[in-house]
Amino acid sequence: xxxxLKRARENSNKFPFYIQGDMRELPFGDKSFxxxxxxxxxxxxxxxxxxxxxxxxxxxxxxPKGVFCLDILNRDSFIKYYLPCMVVEREDNFMxxxxxxxxxxxxxxxxxxxxxxxxxxxxxxxxxxYNLTEVNSLLKxxxxxxxxxxxNWDGEIFSPFSRRMIIFAQKN
Length: 172
Known about the structure:
By secondary structure, the chain is of the alpha+beta class. It has helices at 3-11, 48-61, 75-81, 132-141; strands at residues 33-38, 62-73, 86-90, 93-102, 107-116, 119-128, 144-150, 164-171.
């Protein structure tokens, strides 16, 4: 079990419940939920085809008129605020990211180095960044309609300069 999932289960009472699974094959029946949340850039980590299959899976588990909340980085502002290196320090631990953006594909390739005491780990991951037009097209082609878009969790009006794109879409 992943560390974050274990910690969440240990720190919760009965609800909410936490399930580890593959977002391409959600372990729930059709029309199980009135709301589905994808928070903090949990969408875009797969190939273009797999990202589309994830959206279709969300639609499958949503009840009619159900709401999908998608919280992702805003591609337009990522380009504006792009930094070639980002360092996060917590206590004596470091996380160092070296992102590189490929405009043709929309993917960011990030080389990440994590240092905890004497231990050093390195990994590389990819994230597909979307602009609002692309997300709208993706959702619309899958049977959803965007109802609201915000630039942060304080309800700021979304703009090309918003760092996040928080979308509330409804299943048709």
